[in-house]
C-alpha cells in the first residue's frame, strides 16, 4: 500500500470505510493519473479489471480536483461572501458531476447548506448554457461520507443525493 495513504489515514484517524475509499482513490490515480495530456483510452478497461463490481467506471471519462478559483462559486456566511471550492468534478457519459463528500454530522449545517445552494445554482446556470451549446448537464451531489462504499456508483449516489 502507498505510504501516503497510510500517513493520511493515520493522521486523519480514518475509519475502515474511509480508509478503503482512500486506497481505491490511490489505486485509481495509479491506473489513470489525473494529469493534463494523459492518454486515458485504456484506463476504463484497466479500472474494470481491477474493480469489476463498480459499474460506473466504463462511463467515467475524466475527473479532477478543482483548483481555487476554477468555478468562482460564492456563498454567504453571515455578512461575508466566501468562495466555495467543490472537492471533485467527474465527467460521465451523460452528465458532469460536481461532488462534495461531507461528514454526515455536517450535512445540515448552515455553511454546508449555503454552499450547496450556491453550487446547485451554478450547476443550473452551467446546464442551461451547456444545453444551448450541445454540452452535458451539470449536477451537484452532496454525499454523506458513510454512503460512499466500494460497490456504490456515481449514478446511484447522484440519484440519492443530488441537489434539486
What report would you give on this structure?
By secondary structure, the chain is of the alpha+beta class. The chain has a domain at 55-161. The chain has five helices and six strands. It has helices at residues 3-12, 16-31, 43-50, 110-133, 154-161; strands at 62-64, 73-77, 80-84, 88-91, 96-102, 138-144. The radius of gyration is 16 Å and the shape is globular. The model has no long low-confidence stretch (mean pLDDT 83).
Descriptive keywords:
5 helices, 164 residues, alpha+beta, four-stranded mixed β-sheet, two-stranded antiparallel ribbon
Summarize the structure.
The chain has 164 residues and is of the alpha+beta class. The chain has helices spanning 3-12, 16-31, 43-50, 110-133, 154-161, and strands spanning 62-64, 73-77, 80-84, 88-91, 96-102, 138-144.
Architecture blueprint of SSEs:
Layout: H1 3-12, H2 16-31, H3 43-50, E1 62-64, E2 73-77, E3 80-84, E4 88-91, E5 96-102, H4 110-133, E6 138-144, H5 154-161
Parallel strand pairs: 5-6
Antiparallel strand pairs: 1-4, 2-3, 4-5
Counted beta strands = 6
- First and last CA, distance: 39 Å
Quote the average pLDDT.
83
Largest sheet strand order: 1-4-5-6
- Strand share of the residues? 15-25%
User: Helix-strand pattern, N to C?
Assistant: HHHEEEEEHEH
